[in-house]
Specification:
Layout: E1 16-17, E2 30-31, H1 37-46, H2 51-62, H3 77-86, E3 87-88, E4 92-99, E5 105-112, E6 117-125, E7 134-138, E8 142-144, E9 159-162, H4 165-181, E10 200-203, H5 213-224, E11 236-240, H6 244-251, E12 258-262, H7 268-274, H8 283-297, E13 301-307, H9 315-325, E14 332-338, H10 351-363, E15 367-370, H11 384-394, H12 396-400
Parallel strand pairs: 2-3, 7-10, 10-11, 11-12, 12-13, 13-14, 14-15
Antiparallel strand pairs: 1-4, 4-5, 5-6, 6-7, 8-9
Bound molecules: S-adenosyl-L-homocysteine (SAH) and iron/sulfur cluster (SF4).
Length: 409
């Protein structure tokens, strides 16, 4: 990924491997997290149950955040037992966790039903200048990724498979339950209100969301449903490597989600060196799709720009970027992101170079921000936790003693 995390020092103590829990094979069971309320009602009709029963189940899953049909006390026992045999509330298992020392960032490694591994992150933000505290979940949309960006740990794994809508929803519910059970309050801010729910969702984990378009949209609609989780579309962000058809499709959905485009270079030649997708979709095509998106939605587009020292952070690059985005006027915003360290040999620029880059963008009238250092001390870029976990599982020491905590470095 790609996560919105900063800092790269590992924090071994915060990481543990949970034992594999025994699970019944779930392949044949229906994952209810992948269904809209309407689809759940249809399924209940097929079971010979009235629609209001489906609404009760939806309420238990998304309002009460239960994980077990046995807890659904207003359902007849026979129906609860039937559901437990035929359905699941998610099909993911936590295999490893990291918490930053300040507990503002929590990262989990999830095992899917077929054994594949994905990462999700919870980022907690204290109340700032009158605004409320935020709890942002960063989810994966695929296991691996087909696009092979050179600075991205996930990109170096290759593509494994798309996630189902239920697998995307499950990542959000995991953290929602965690916060419900133990609301978070920023240390050192005694008067501040604790936060007990998810406020924002970003698709900036492993994978390319627009490559898994239908399942991603299904997940967003489920999470947006007022009868269910009820997370506002304006609090959701889809981040894409820049797939023009997907960008245009998104503009027609009537769902007011935010769009972020991973640009990372101001010209095709430079971009192709780090982002192979550029050979298929040159910048002109990506920008044309963004123009259409803006015309259809009147919404601002964020352009993510991972700053790689000595690669794309020069004043020349800043001028080119300013010229490239100037036609989009106030509809373009650049988010400068000092690169997180991965196995690849990239370094973030120093503060002076970042300030110079941003000043040039301002001269071109392009609004911009820099992703704030969070002072995190856990594996920064997404894909790293999984990479380390897999390497650790393969090592002879790990195989001989699986109860040992993982050693990240
Ligand atoms: N595939 C989508 C979404 C996942 S990546 C996309 O590329 O947009 C989310 C963001 O993290 C992207 O902007 C991506 O380029 C960025 N990213 C990837 N590796 C990174 C790294 N090592 N440091 C900082 N950002 C990174
Ligand atoms: Fe990583 Fe996104 Fe590029 Fe895929 S498209 S390799 S997830 S940055």
């Amino acid at each position: 990924m790609a996560l919105a995390l900063e800092g790269s020092t590992c924090y071994n103590e915060g990481m543990m491997i949970r034992g594999r829990t025994t699970r019944e094979p779930s392949a044949a069971r229906r994952d209810l997290l992948g269904l809209t309320l309407k689809q759940l009602e249809e399924w209940f009709r097929e079971l010979g149950e009235p629609a209001y029963r489906a609404r009760q189940v939806y309420n238990w899953i998304y309002k009460h955040l239960v994980t077990d049909f046995a807890a659904m006390s207003n359902l007849p026992l026979s129906l609860r037992e039937h559901l437990a045999r035929e359905a699941t509330i998610g099909q993911v298992t936590v295999r490893s966790e990291q918490h930053s020392k300040d507990d503002r960032t929590r990262k989990i490694l999830l095992e899917l039903a077929d054994g594949r591994l994905i990462e999700s992150v919870l980022m907690l933000y204290p109340p700032l200048r009158g605004s409320s505290a935020r709890a942002t979940v960063c989810v994966s949309s695929q296991a691996g990724c087909a696009f092979g960006c050179t600075f991205c740990a996930t990109g170096q794994m290759g593509f494994e498979r798309h996630l189902s809508a239920g697998e995307i929803v499950a990542q959000v519910l995991h953290f929602a339950r965690e916060l419900r059970a133990a609301p978070w309050r920023a240390r050192g801010l005694p008067g501040s209100q604790p936060i007990d729910h998810i406020t924002n969702l970003v698709l900036m984990g492993m994978g390319e969301p627009l490559h898994n378009y239908d399942n991603v949209m299904q997940a967003l609609r489920i999470l947006n449903s007022p009868e269910g989780f009820n997370l506002g579309a304006r609090h959701m962000t889809v981040s894409t490597v820049g797939l023009p058809q997907g960008i245009r499709r998104l503009s027609q959905e009537g769902l007011q989600v935010n769009l972020a485009i991973s640009l990372h270079a101001p010209n095709d030649e430079l971009r192709a060196q780090t982002m192979p997708v550029t050979r298929k979709y040159p910048l002109a095509e990506v920008l044309a799709a963004c123009q259409d998106y803006i015309a259809a939605t009147r919404r601002q587009v964020t352009f993510e720009y991972v700053l790689l020292a000595g690669v794309n952070d020069s004043p020349v690059c800043a001028h080119q970027l300013g010229e490239l985005l100037a036609p989009l006027k106030q509809y373009a915003h650049v988010n400068c992101i000092p690169v997180n360290k991965t196995a690849a040999d990239y370094r973030p620029p120093g503060p002076e170079a970042i300030r110079r880059f941003r000043d040039i963008l301002f001269q071109h009238g392009v609004s911009n921000s820099v992703r704030a250092e969070r002072g995190d001390d856990i594996d920064a870029a997404c894909g790293q936790l999984r990479t380390r976990f897999v390497a650790q599982q393969r090592s002879p020491l790990a195989r001989s003693n699986t109860a040992e905590p993982a050693r990240s470095r």
